[in-house]
Amino acid sequence: MAETTAGLYGGEYKRRITIRDLRTAKEQGERWPMLTSYEMFTGKIFDDAGVPVLLVGDSAGNNIYAHPDTVPVTLEEMIPLARAVVRSTRRALVVCDLPFGSYQVSTEQALRTAITVMKESGVQAVKLEGGLPAVESVRRIVDAGIPVMAHVGFTPQSVNAIGGYRVQGRGAQGDELVAAAHALEEAGAFAIVLEMVTAEVTAEITKRLSIPVIGIGSGPHCDAQVLVWQDMAGMGAQATPRFVKAFGDLRGNLTAATQAFADEVVSGQFPAEEHTYH
């Protein structure tokens, strides 16, 4: 009996998706979705829906922990979130971000952090941000047997150095991003996220690399697309970037359900007889 049916998205995998499956999808020209997840409910829902890769992102900083950005997130805060997503999924490949300050000091620090995340959370891969300066850390982690997803373009952990949320890849910077993507692939990264990179540069990188290119705000030419799940589902109250599309109105639905519950409690309609034990 075959282990799968065709396709990462919606295919009936009898096991977890692997980095080899992602490479095969690239070779076959198959596009696939990726979402963030930080706990058991979304983990299970997205896994059951057939999303092949889930990212336990340090975007938890401004989507779970109420920070203004991702910089304050700690390793100790990330591991329990990743552990919950792993426990609640059976099919998706789960990737965990290495938070700011946990890998930039040295390649030794990066390797120690990656090992800690893998051992304590059970994820199948880690992700780290950075272009050429991150290459040696990626190589060191991969050489230790840990799959690494790279991330270039706009890197949220560097928001203060970049000077805000700015599109990347215009002018000479485009060549720099292409070179960085090549170097990260050669270092062993199994996939690369391009965030807020011009569509033209993204198309060039996607064409040149043999590993999957995952876009967020980088146009339609990638092998995969990722969004923060709260943005995707219409959960957030704040303004969202231009590249975000809400595919639902979860905030509106949850607000309506909350108000209906509160109204019935105040009026005495809830709990009714059918909700009462005798």
Walk me through the structure:
- Keywords: Cytoplasm, Magnesium, Metal-binding, Methyltransferase, Pantothenate biosynthesis, Transferase.
- It catalyses: (6R)-5,10-methylene-5,6,7,8-tetrahydrofolate + 3-methyl-2-oxobutanoate + H2O = 2-dehydropantoate + (6S)-5,6,7,8-tetrahydrofolate.
- The active site is at 195 (proton acceptor).
- It comes from Phytoactinopolyspora mesophila.
- The structure is a single chain.
- With 278 residues, the protein is of the alpha/beta class.
- It folds into two domains: 19-247, Phosphoenolpyruvate-binding domains (TIM Barrel); 252-277, no CATH class.
- The protein is 40% helix and 13% strand.
- α2 packs across α4, α6 (135-143) runs parallel beside α8 and α8 runs parallel beside α9 (199-208).
- The radius of gyration is 20 Å and the shape is globular.
- The chain starts with 18 loop residues before the first helix and ends in an 11-residue tail after the last helix.
Layout of secondary structure:
Blueprint: H1 19-27, E1 32-36, H2 40-49, E2 53-56, H3 60-63, H4 75-87, E3 93-97, H5 107-121, E4 125-127, H6 135-143, E5 148-153, H7 159-162, H8 173-187, E6 191-195, H9 199-208, E7 213-216, E8 224-227, H10 229-232, H11 250-267
Parallel strand pairs: 1-2, 1-8, 2-3, 3-4, 4-5, 5-6, 6-7, 7-8
Helix pairs in contact: 2-4, 4-5, 5-6, 6-8, 8-9
Pathway: Cofactor biosynthesis; (R)-pantothenate biosynthesis; (R)-pantoate from 3-methyl-2-oxobutanoate: step 1/2
GO molecular function, one term: magnesium ion binding
Organism: Phytoactinopolyspora mesophila
